[in-house]
Amino acid sequence: MSERVLQDSAGVEMVPPLSDDLDSLACLLDVALSAVGSGRDERGGPLPLGGPVAIADDVRRALVNQALPATGTDPALVLAQLSRILAAGAADPTHPFCAAHLHCPPLAVGVAADLVAAVLNQSLDSWDQAPAASEFERQVIDSLAHLAGYDPSVAGGVVTSGGTESNLMGLLLARDAAATGQARVFASELAHFSVARNAQLLGMDPQAVVDVPTDRAGRMDPDALEVAMTAALRRGEQPAAVVATAGTTDLGSIDPLVDVATVARRHGAWLHIDAAYGGGALFSSRLQPLLAGLAGADSIALDLHKLGWLPIPAGVFLVHDHTALAPLATRVAYLNPADDENAGIPSLLGRSLRTTRRADAFKIAVCLRALGREGLGALVDRCHELATYAASRVARHRRLQLWATPVLTTVVFSYTARTDSSAVNAVLRRRLLFAGKAVVGRADLNGAVWLKLTLLNPQASKTDIDRLLDAIVAAGEEEDR
Ligand SMILES: Cc1ncc(COP(=O)(O)O)c(C=O)c1O
């Protein structure tokens, strides 16, 4: 018996194995993966049957209505039971009919790398908790800054929890860079909701975010932006930031980045580009031209847990000039004392809003190296082709109406009902969800309910798309009798 094993008076081990016990970990992983397989087989589709009440009941039963019992049970047994329940009740992004959200099926190598990060449990709030991990992050940021068109020797950035946090950082830096006054943020009416919520979190007033109109293709109108910014200036307000979107959540549309940048510059505003979705196009030589002008941004949000096939979270925040991160600088003795820094120990605190921070950069580094730009670009192209195919099928279907040609991997369309199309589309989507048949997205546009396929599964086939559209039409017909 190792002297490190603590026992209670009855000789029962009190401290379960820690992550350095790789043999125990391997056994637990075997148990967990086999339970995931059983749970997935039990589910048999993209989503469990039965809707929210039935699935919540399954979870409560597995927990015996008590997530924290007084005494524990064999860890392998608990892991097996609960992993099976989680998998059986999962929305499965690897299933081709799970096509609603920017929720990608992660690459197996990325999941394995994520596990390595969990095993080693590095924390990027200080170098002495993450010596190699902090350099992995620096290298990842340099490579992605270069990909975005920035000069990596000047640029800076950090790995984030996702687009929401990256957008918050962009707005925070914009606010701090702006002259004092009533700060205004200009974003298209299709910008992600996190822009408005972040402005609120930053203490801006409720009118701070000005909606700029878009054209029918969902792109910000630069002339309307000019008018809105000029009007704000006339009212004595401070145009602090313009947020352009490269890949809107609803349509995948990309604002005219060059023209928007020109207007933003003219008014001295910070330009943040939310490329959380569309940033993935940088990997594809075919689609990369869609992002022309990206490097004109002061800051950029990218999400590799969307068009990057990494497990959540894998957000990235980039700044054109690393000195722009200065407002985040923080000095605390327990994490980055000045004398440590003078002695050559990197200070990590001034990059992020978070303190404890997992080494998400590691799985990004593994996937970037493993697939390379071309490998990732091929996945982007594949999903784009699937979207183009789906749109062509929709356009030819007598009961379906296409909103617009897909820009990235999103197809927006509606089932044309004999009665109220909006109501039928809303209900048919829920009908598919509750039957566990398909996870289809929804977009409310021009006051009507539309359906949305966000195609991020490069292994899906054209036959899968045909069958998914057939299932949608069948659900529509059942609802529209
Ligand atoms: C355009 C855009 N920006 C930001 C976000 C927020 O990203 P996250 O969910 O990673 O915080 C999303 C989410 O879908 C998005 O579509």
Give a short synopsis of this structure.
The N and C termini lie far apart (about 70 Å). Helix 1 (about 20-45) runs parallel beside helix 3, helix 5 (about 130-145) packs parallel to helix 11 (about 360-395) and helix 12 packs across helix 13.
What does this structure look like?
- The protein has helices at residues 22-43, 51-62, 75-88, 108-120, 131-147, 163-177, 193-201, 222-234, 257-266, 338-342, 360-396, 421-434, 462-479, and strands spanning 98-99, 156-160, 183-188, 209-212, 238-245, 270-275, 299-303, 315-319, 400-402, 410-415, 439-445, 448-454.
- β11 and β12 form a beta hairpin.
- With 481 residues, the protein is of the alpha/beta class.
- Among the domains are: 22-92, no CATH class; 112-371, Type I PLP-dependent aspartate aminotransferase-like (Major domain) (Aspartate Aminotransferase, domain 2, 3-Layer(aba) Sandwich).
- It starts with 21 loop residues before the first helix and ends with a helix.
- α4 packs antiparallel against α11, α5 runs parallel beside α11 (360-396) and α12 crosses α13.
- The structure holds pyridoxal-5'-phosphate (PLP).
